[in-house]
Amino acid sequence: MTPRADRGGASRGTGPGGDRQGPRFRKPPLRVLPTTLWEYPSQHYNSESGREIQGDPSFEGATPSWVIWQLLQRYTRPNDLVVDPMAGSGTTLDVARDLGRRVLAYDLAPTRPDIFRADARELPLESGKADFVFVDPPYSTHINYSGDARCIGKLDAAAPPEQPGDPTGQAYYEAMEEVISEIHRVLKNRRYMALYVSDSWRKRRGEPGEGAGVFMPIGFELFSVLRDYFTPVDVVCVVRQNAKLERGNYRKAAVEGNFFLRGFNYLFIMKRVETARDPSEFTIEE
After folding, report:
1. Beta partners for 266?
2. pLDDT per residue over 101-125, tens digit each?
3. Considering the chain, what is the average pLDDT of its residues?
4. Ordered domains of the chain (ranges, CATH)
5. Phi and psi at residue 97, in whole multiples of 5°?
6. Is it the case that residue 81 has pLDDT exceeding 80?
7. Cβ neighbours of residue 201 under 8 Å, at least 6 residues apart?
8. Minimal CA–CA distance to 26: which of 37, 16, 40, 39?
């Protein structure tokens, strides 16, 4: 579920959804990007049908629609079934329809009628039905997505261990593993999924000398979980140039506090690969 790649121009302001404003700005036509470093100067793209915005630009944490466009161009075909288990404002719905893909979208707190109410950990979908799954999950507790107590966005990825030896943020990562396991269940064999996520840093509140803040390597942790279920295809770095990154007070605080603003998102592209067992592995009991 994605904050996430709004574009802020040095000489122009940014409007809702991160699109640059000003009479001279025109969204460049989309093309399939050839490297693992992705950047585009707008949150949205202009589709062939004339649509200029995908999803809701006022939705906090919306996924950049052009990222989904790139994925569907590479890993799906017309009429394939695309599934988004954390649909947010419905960006995946709009992109998939622009490209002639069938699409199912789910969310605990649907924002529009074509999103089904469901928990990403228990989707009302038969196994092996999806040709592609995209998910942009909460990055810990930074955004209040809904009042539903089941929302993974209420789980702190930096929560201290409940018992000695337990991992930090255990509840968050356990919940996300359930989501990943469910994606594995609904995805067809030899088809692809992608997870879009960022690490996180939070200012520490406490006694002097305890450090400036806490870093949450959410991307690395989730990639480790993904590898238990899927075969890695590639890792893409998606540049984030949102309005906050351009604000002088944010940049000054990062320098003076000796921490970093999040400049990119991970895009983990994975493939479900289930191979048939060699008959020689089976033993026949007499």
Report:
1. 197, 237
2. 999 999 999 999 999 999 999 999 9
3. 85
4. 16-275 (3.40.50.150)
5. -70, -35
6. yes
7. 213, 214, 215, 216, 259, 260, 262
8. 40
